Amino acid sequence: MNPLLIDPALRSGCENIPELKDVLASAAQSQRSPIDDVLDAGLVDEERYMRELAHDLDLEWLVSIPLPDEPMPLREACGPSVALKHRLLPVEITGEDGEQRLKLATFDPFNLIARQAAAQELELPVDWCMVSRKRLYEALRRLYGVGADTFEKILEGRDFDYDAIDVGEDEANIIDQDEDEEASVVKFVNQIIREALDQRATDIHVEPLATNLQIRYRIDGRLIEIAVPENIKALQSSVIARLKIMAHLDIAERRVPQDGRINLQFEGQTIDVRVATVPTVEGESVSLRLLNQEKFNLAKLQLEPFVQKKIESLLELSNGIILITGPTGSGKSTSLYSFLSEVNHPERRIVTVEDPVENKLSGVMQIAVKSEIGLTFANALRSILRADPNIVMIGEIRDLETAEIAIRASLTGHLVFSTLHTNDAMGGISRLVDMGVEPFLVSAAVRAFLAQRLVRRLCPHCKSPREISDQDKSDLGIPLDLPGEAFNATGCDRCRGTGFSGRLAIYEVVLITSAMQELVAHSAPSSKIREQAFRDGYVPMRSYGWHKAMQGVTTIEEVLSATSSDFDGT
Can you list the pairs that 514-517 forms with residues at least 24 positions away whose Cβ atoms lie under 8 Å? Predict the structure, then answer.
């Protein structure tokens, strides 16, 4: 067994050397380069192991790889077909004209095929160095852009002047000109979607600009611009046409918005993609919402005990309305599906009216709103009340008619779930009244208002403790007796340097108790209603967020950013 691969593992803290030897033996037997197998097995700390290996091979170790201000010389020195196929990263061009050399990074110094390709296909002599696999992959994405190798094949053999491209020219049929090119465009679009799924993106935006085609992913609630190949503008219409074909949209219609869906299979998971096109002055913009068909339950929400107890008691009710409030993108649908999954039993009939149906729940009758044929929330709700439901979910109460039917349903023995767009839980009361619902009906029908926001979850691999004094806690409104420790976001390879990985919801719940019913029915001032809510055990959303911050789940800054301070009792 080659000690060159075993010794770095020993020094980097590998605790299972026998299994490591088995992995190396298997790679040798299959005539594969062993580095991928060692890293995939998870037996070593990648960073430490690769650094020790670089030391033993007397190769320079790169701690970071900054993207140069002018990346084009590096792309020209090592094209994407070589770099991405063989996983080689051009880092720097050194020396003067005539004596230039290319510093080339690899994570696998034993890949002889890659070394031969570099020697045969690159014009500059190479100086080798090493970097971790994760850092190399991320740098390749930043330098070349998503799908760059495929994009290069599409343009191969074309003679075009990018500056002379007529953006308004009809290129929609470009994918039909050549079978190989069509396949390459399909592959390129698939790479865009796959990369988004790999990075846990919830949305993809393909946006035409005057001189470029911008692609952005929404990851953990933040939009991130993705590096794209040079000259991607040349295939703008082809890429957009391919997305429209996948969504069964009319590729010839570019003047009006269109909506469609794509069903994908990704690593055994079904991904439902909602597609929306919008005509802009530079061409059609396409937005894709990626929806995993995931399982829902209360445990998924990771509720604090004092909130979970309230919600469990609400889910045991046989009638009334439970309203979830919050802006678009605050996770209301996830909470609704979790509540429905919790009450989904064979002895209960559950019917939903949604626009659109984002996730399919087994055993639940789900209806998609189709306004163009008159199937609105109100019309659908009016019909399903004659279909003997026990529980009804309305995607959103948007108007007085829907609100009145929902209230009527709750007063006749149905448990109703729905959403409203308000800033906080107590704002739901005034929102319904402003719609035209009589205050006495609000007090009689509604059982609770829940408000929520999403905050980013700290990356567990790189979060770092922070000192926070009692004075700082007092200034922020964090209870001095709240146990736990606050953490800062640091950033590492696993979280793309952001310090965050995923999101979670923070909540506030206002129960409509008998005392609250009296106040609401008589249109009491909001200050009186708020005071009664605190007497009934109301905990503001920011206070809920402090529990998550002191548990090290999110940061103080995230809680401050997601919540407003215009309440008493912070």
Answer: 516/443, 517/443, 517/444
